[in-house]
Amino acid sequence: MNSFYYNLPKIELHAHLSGSISSAFLKRESITNRDVQNINSSFDFETWNGDMNRCFDAFRTIHKLIETPEILERATTSVIEEFHQENVILLELRTTLRPIPTHRSYLNAVIKGMQNAPSVLDNKIYVTLILSIDRSKSLDEALLTLELAKEYYSNGLVSGIDLSGNPLVGNLCDFVPVLNTARSYGLKTTVHIAETADQSEDWCKFLRLHLPDRLGHGIFLTNSDENSVLAREIVLKSQIPLDG
């Protein structure tokens, strides 16, 4: 049965680049075993107690290790090839731009890694790119990402904007103008929502201001309280797909 599922052609629509970089790649890059062990322990979900900060600490550790455009390019190619090995035929990568050494050079490195991946060149996998806005960062950072997304969308290299990041930090509604502007540029939008409990009022406010083309997670769109029910009704009525 496992081989049956392994051999099925697959579509992956929620692949965060940093979260998809394997310890095998880091070892090939001669990154120290200690650093790799720290990442592995952070992602040991058998002992995970639901602490969201633990996940984002692991992402920050990976960010420190991927410190040059060259490593980032190779990491991107490696991620694509590993998905190809699992028979993924359509891969949607998403990544938050970082200054390595500039946001543009980061984006160029990711695109180069995508375009030079052997499975892409052989037309065995189709890869698209979404640029993520981190809700814990400033609006200025979000606007910088948006302008690069607009530029690279016109070249057919970027397909949309993602709003994500630590759900315990920041407010979704603060980024509504950015998302609405993205849509005016022709970009699709996807937003992480309802990842933690006790924020249902914010979800309702956000969904009344911006209806994304897709939502991520939506774990707590339940019957737990009135606002959760209202938010879920908006999603169902608007027929917004969920992933992740």
From TrEMBL:
Coiled coil: none
Any one GO BP annotation for this protein: nucleotide metabolic process
Record keywords: Hydrolase, Metal-binding, Nucleotide metabolism, Zinc
Record-level Gene Ontology MF annotations: adenosine deaminase activity; metal ion binding
Cofactor(s) needed for function: Zn(2+)
Family matches, as SUPFAM superfamilies: Metallo-dependent hydrolases (SSF51556)
Adenosine deaminase domain sequence ranges: 9-220
UniProt key word Zinc: yes
Name the UniProt record assigns to this protein: Adenosine deaminase domain-containing protein
Organism: Schistosoma margrebowiei
Upper lineage: Eukaryota, Metazoa, Spiralia, Lophotrochozoa, Platyhelminthes
